[in-house]
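Re: [ENG-882] Designed sequences occasionally contain unexpected residues at chain ends

Forwarding the minimal case from QA. Structure tokens:
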């Protein structure tokens, strides 16, 4: 998960590629708690203060996707579980669509 967070932040040009190891270390240390990760990255001057909100959002999305993928759900299985089509499920797993509170309730049931 830490590597995935670092990769997403670097690919979005929100952090410098040379800080990859530090970002992974922070993400691993805080185990997906997006607010803590963002605060620590800011404290270490790895992200500018004005980017905190967007970094927090990208980390939150990455953590959700990571946990869905580690469950081994395919697009079709996630779609059935959420009651949505395969395309939306694929976009959720890819990170281009968000889980709604209703989706989260269905997954928790």
């Amino acid at each position: 998960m830490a590597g995935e967070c670092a990769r997403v932040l670097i690919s979005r040009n929100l952090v410098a590629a040379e800080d990859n190891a530090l970002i992974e270390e922070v993400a691993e240390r805080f185990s997906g708690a997006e607010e803590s990760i963002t605060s620590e990255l800011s404290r270490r001057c790895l992200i500018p203060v004005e980017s905190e909100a967007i970094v927090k959002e990208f980390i939150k999305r990455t953590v959700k996707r990571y946990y869905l993928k580690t469950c081994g759900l395919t697009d079709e299985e996630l779609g059935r579980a959420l009651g949505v089509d395969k395309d939306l499920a694929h976009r959720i797993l890819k990170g281009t669509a968000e889980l709604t509170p209703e989706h989260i309730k269905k997954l928790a049931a």
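QA comment: On inspection the terminal residues look reasonable. The radius of gyration is 15 Å. Proposing we downgrade this to a documentation issue.
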